[in-house]
Amino acid sequence: MKKRLFCFVFLITMQMGFAQNNLLWQGYFSYNDIKDISESSTTIFAASENALFSKSTTTNQLKTTNTVDGLSGETITSLYYSPTSNKTLVGYKNGLMIVINEADGSMLNIVDIINKQLPSNIKKINHFMEYGGIVYVSCDFGIVQFNLATMLFGDTYFIGNNGAEISVTQTAVFNGYIYASTIDGVRKADIANKNLIDFNQWTQIASGSWSSIEAFGTELIAINTTGYIHKYNQVTNSFTGYLSLPQASSDMRATGDYLVITTASSAYVYNKQLVLVRQINSNQIPQSNVVFVCATSIGDTIYIGTTGNGIYSTTIATASAFENTMPSGPSRNNVFALQVGANALWAVYGDYAGDYNPYPLDSYGISKFSSAGWLNIPYEKVLGAKSIVRVIMNPNNENEVYMGCSYSGLLKIENDIPSVLYNQTNSGLEEISFISGYHDDVRINGGAFDKSGNLWVNNSLVLNGLKVLKANGQWQSFSMEGILDKYTNASMGRLIIDKNGTKWWGTNYEGLIGYNESINKFKKITLGPDKGNLPIFDVRSIAVDNRNQLWIGTSKGLRVLPNVNSFLTDDQMTTNPIIILDDNLAQELMYEQFISDIVVDGANNKWIGTADSGVFLVSPNGQETKYHFTTNNSPLPSNVVNDIDINSATGEVFIATTKGMVSFKGTATAANEDLNNVYVYPNPVRPEYEGTVKITGLLNKAIVKITDIEGNLVYETTSEGGTIEWDTTAFGKHKVASGVYMIFVSAQDGMETKVKKVMIIR
After folding, report:
1. ∠ CA 297-302-306, rounded to 5°
2. For 462, which of 77, 430, 620, 748 could close a Cys bridge (C-beta 3.0–4.6 Å)?
């Protein structure tokens, strides 16, 4: 047990190191959907769903911050920059608060609100207001004091009736009193009162539901949830209706000389006399369907945060062109599927429920990442393709990409331009016909190219469920009668093709299906020892490894088919669980786990994504779990993993989750054809470096020997794939001393050799 605890602590420590090491992790986040903004005299700060960015108004320099830098992957709900402390406060839906020291970039996670003995659904942070070195944090249960100097929470105010929890939307200090807008009235108390934790010290001065309150010059302004602006009358201690907005307000704030009020379609700028000096309507912006969220000003410039379009800015005094600010990134964070080629990565955002039901349908576009940056193709340009759930790149021509849709068929993209949407009207694909009222519903989820350039896809819920688009443009269909018990239940998932040309794909009710046209046979692997030994019918992911084993991920665990050749020889194939020893007890690897994806890297390790437990990296035989990445020990923004893919040339592992995409720069690259490109990094190895030395550009099964300058052997291994790691120890016993070390690389047959050097400085 002590050994397990040590390994667990070591793993967490190591992964937290990864989270701070940009050489190993990279974030690919969307910054489009703005949740909140704040400002200094020279910088605009913005929070998207779970990442931040800022822009200097003097240099125009953009800076991004995401989970790789230490942020949480949870949903951000509020943001505040404190000019007095030079700190940025980030509030989350779950009550987490992160304080960023802008001087050095350090972050402090504060979990006091999360740990409060309150229902989890009322811990959301709605607003920050600073007064006298104290930040008053408005939450869905009340108000919490936070001291910027000590970085500690103070009192909590439950100001509802009889001290009950109440959702506070905003606070303001005006003429010696603190005012709180809530979902049940506006309440006030003497800011100097030392006993504000007593709800009796708070007086309700207005009824109804209120969205915001703000002190502005000699006025106190509040807006109710219907969009009616009110002014406070100190004589009557009440609010008087002033102006009715055409929509509910989403944000109000006082910045310098202006009061800025935001609705979904307009931003209103008032001067200190409460005269409207500028109204900006969303339809003035060239992009269609722009939705405003919040707005602020720096000097004479207004910055408007939007849903889906980042920030727009323009001058207040006179009408001028709009400038759009948004770091480059994918169009959405919830990446459902991706595929990586040698030169590009494609990501799609459609999805379906656990039973493969795509409704309600998604109308999202497509994203491509390459050396040129991000290209986001909007929905308006994808020929009406809805619920795009799979990417199928042509391995012989990366400029030809197909997208499987769980409703609209198969979309073809050529040179980054959607060109054809294949469906029941123009191809061999078929729509669902057995359900009354279903029209144009063509479900394509899995697909892969064979060696001849033919594209094979599965077509769910139709009898002829296997289709091929041949290289000559002709379609062919294959009936699954006799192999499927009930095709009307058989929603199909991922599809792969092994070295024998056998097509494999998973279903939700029929297990794993295989087809090989050379013998013209379908075969099936399902439940029971005599039918294939799967733990459940629902197969979600499949991968063939470098030893021709078929790894099968289901919604209830893992199975392995020992050799894909058995499809050609055995009437009934049988899979096996992987049994590991855990505390000297036999355990089944990935027991009962919902496995969403399996990918094999260049060293034959398996990357296993799960529906709620993050990502596992296991050894080629599954006996060793090398890494287990979660939101707690890595920059993974969510433990819900949708898809994984690997750049075989670089070893970079891309992980798509429901809250963003990150990559881990592993060491397992595909094997090279020769030793001409062998190189060693880092070189030299400096005292502060704590990682391993990588030797890459290797042949598969290359023999690597490392000696000191005197010829004493300190390490020896045989590569699986194109890269090996050396922990700079002498056969794992102790760290080697400073000096130059010789690296001898030879092919398995000894016909090709290479010698390299690495310097180690202790």
Report:
1. 110
2. 430
Cis peptide before 535 (omega within 30 of 0): no
Contact status, residue 350 vs residue 388, Cβ threshold 8 Å:
yes
Q: Which residues of the chain have pLDDT under 70?
A: 1-23, 667-668
Q: Are 760 and 741 in contact (CB under 8 A)?
A: yes
Contact predicate 444/457, CB 8 Å: yes
> What's residue 668's pLDDT?
67
**Bridge partners of 34?**
none
3-state secondary structure of 490: coil
Is 36 in contact with 77 (CB distance < 8 Å)?
Answer: yes
Please tell me the predicted confidence (pLDDT) of residue 315.
Answer: 95
For residue 667, what pLDDT is reported?
65
Terminus-to-terminus CA distance in the chain, angstroms? 34
The answer to whether 641 and 610 are in contact (CB under 8 A) is yes
CA distance 573 to 561: 8
User: What pLDDT score was predicted for residue 210?
Assistant: 98
DSSP 80-108: EEETTTTEEEEEETTS-EEEEETTT--EE
Per-residue DSSP letter, 593: -
Cis ω before 684 (30° cut-off from 0): yes
CATH topology agreement for domains 31-157 and 329-495:
yes
- pLDDT score for 11: 34
Domain 329-495, CATH homologous superfamily name and number: YVTN repeat-like/Quinoprotein amine dehydrogenase (2.130.10.10)
- The residues, ordered by sequence, that sit 6+ positions from 590 with a Cβ below 8 Å of its Cβ are 553, 557, 558, 578, 608, 610, 616
The C-alpha atoms of residue 485 and residue 526 are separated, in whole angstroms, by 12
Determine the Cα–Cα distance for residues 245 and 264; give it in Å rounded to an integer: 11
Instruction: Tell me whether strands 97-101 and 107-110 are parallel, antiparallel or unpaired.
Output: antiparallel
pLDDT tens column, 110-121: 999 999 999 999
Best CA proximity match to 130, nearest among 275, 254, 260, 307: 254
Tokens of 469: 């688009």
Hey, which bits of 134-273 come out as E strands? 134-139, 143-147, 152-157, 168-174, 177-182, 185-190, 203-206, 210-216, 219-224, 228-233, 238-244, 249-255, 258-263, 266-270
Give the count of beta carbons closer than 10 Å to the beta carbon of residue 217: 13
Element (H, E) at 298: strand 291-298
Superfamily grouping for domain 679-760? Outer membrane usher protein (2.60.40.3110)
The CB density around residue 393, as the number of other CB atoms within 10 Å, is 21
**587-609 confidence digits (pLDDT tens):** 999 999 999 999 999 889 999 99
How crowded is the C-beta side of 684, counted as CA atoms within 13 Å? 10
Burial of 605 (0-12, 13-18, 19+ CB in 10 A): buried
Distances (CA, A) of 251 to 54, 140, 293: 20, 17, 7
Q: What is the pLDDT of residue 354?
A: 92
Which residue's structure tokens are 């939007």?
306
Q: How far apart are CA 166 and CA 435, in angstroms?
A: 48
Which residue type, as a one-letter code, is found at position 537? F
293: region left, alpha or beta (phi > 0 left; psi from -120 to 50 alpha): alpha
E-strand stretches of 378-502: 388-394, 397-405, 409-414, 417-422, 444-449, 455-459, 466-469, 475-478, 492-497
- 3-class SS of residue 663: strand
Q: In what order do the strands lie in the sheet with 143-147?
A: 125-131, 134-139, 143-147, 152-157
Q: What is the CATH number of domain 31-157?
A: 2.130.10.10
> Which letter does DSSP use for residue 527 in this model?
B
User: What ranges do the domains of the chain cover?
Assistant: 31-157, 249-327, 329-495, 679-760
Distance CA 436, CA 119 (A): 44
